[in-house]
Amino acid sequence: MSMARFLTLEGIEGAGKSTVGKFVLGWLARQRIPGRLTREPGGTPLAERVRQLVLERGSEPLSPVAETLLMFAARDLHLKNLIRPALERGEWVICDRFTDATRAYQGSGRGVDAGLIETLAGAVQGKLEPDCTLLLDLPPSVGLARARSREAGPADRFEAETLAFFERVRSGYLELARRAPRRFRVIDASAALAAVEARVEAILEDLV
């Protein structure tokens, strides 16, 4: 029986998902557990091209519904060409954002109908859900300050959003965690890195 796990990382900009993802991959390697770190939107060459469409600040407006459809188009490619094959090989998949991000960003943040999002989720991922979701939670003002301090170029469409937008996104994430307490693990991402890693390690040990 495969011991593969599907682990997702969620949170607003500046929450430290990339750092935690690398920590998880390193921890798995030390346990001799095969792991794959990926991200959404993106993860495969074609899905990364869709990512560019979603993030770029072009002259043509992108409606919230169009944005949602692009997210699921990229997700479908990602699932079929990377995530499902890796899980079938017995690898752990650590994904930086997944469908909960669409629920929080496009649903709570943009106001896209939740019914539409769930219909698309059912069509694209079927019954596949993460085994565990690490929600790295922190005040949006802190996360945005972190994200904007490390920007090497112009902000993308999401990084340029208002504080009020990210407050809605954070509230959406916390409501998702409240509704699915067995899957979500909420982590204080404003804490020191060592404390965050200790909490993540304890969760991983429980999953193993």
SSE diagram, text form:
Layout: E1 6-10, H1 17-30, E2 35-39, H2 45-55, H3 64-88, E3 92-96, H4 99-109, H5 114-125, E4 132-137, H6 140-149, H7 163-179, E5 184-188, H8 193-207
Parallel strand pairs: 1-3, 1-4, 2-3, 4-5
Helix pairs in contact: 1-8, 2-3, 3-5, 4-7
Question: Which terms summarize this structure?
Answer:
alpha/beta; 5-stranded parallel sheet; globular; 208 residues; Rossmann fold
How would you describe this structure to a colleague?
This protein has 8 helices and 5 strands, in the order E-H-E-H-H-E-H-H-E-H-H-E-H. Strands 2-3-1-4-5 form a 5-stranded parallel β-sheet, with helices on both faces. The protein has one domain (6-207): 3-Layer(aba) Sandwich (Rossmann fold). By secondary structure, it is an alpha/beta fold. The protein is globular and about 50 Å long. The model has no long low-confidence stretch (mean pLDDT 95).
Question: Can you give me a brief rundown of this structure?
Answer:
This protein is of the alpha/beta class and about 210 residues long.
